[in-house]
């Protein structure tokens, strides 16, 4: 009786234990979920018509569908491509309504594809698979526009340069079974750009915009 009871307990514990399987060389991971870009921005002041307006900029957060694909070149190292649907951010004045047109200057849209090499601390006895990584980002910035009120005030032709910068991340996979896992990651991306525009026909600029966002991702992944 005791033997049967002990066997039943062992089977129950085995069934209740989380599935544990480390990633292996040759594995492909495909993930989809939510990605939030939270700028940790600092900018130089707006220059308009050669004069410093004494006003900088702030940039709002945005959340979109995040996608990534990774391939394990060894049991511990993979190469990952981060992609997403386009992020659109409101660009605001750092002080309240300096031009009498509201606090929002305009908006910008961007795509920040990032290639990262990750190192996994593989543990075949744990469902948790943490990793760290570093890589390179190229941010495409497009669809820059002023608000209607700022256009009426004479602002036009807003343009922001694309950006190349480094990135770093920490993350974790939680293995549900051999194929499926849940992923969470936090990464820092170095994004620097410059803005140019016209105001009443005169040239204007913001010469140093350090967006430098923290990027938070929560996704579900499949291994094949």
UniProtKB/TrEMBL annotation:
Record Pfam families: OmpW (PF03922)
Family annotation (Gene3D superfamilies): 2.40.160.20
Signal sequence coordinates: 1-22
Tagged with keyword Signal: yes
Keywords, ordered alphabetically: Signal
Name of this chain's protein: Outer membrane protein OmpW
NCBIfam families: autotrans_barl
Coiled-coil annotated residue ranges, if any: none
Top-rank lineage group of the source organism: Bacteria
InterPro entries recorded: OM_autotransptr_brl_dom, OMP/PagP_B-barrel, OMPW
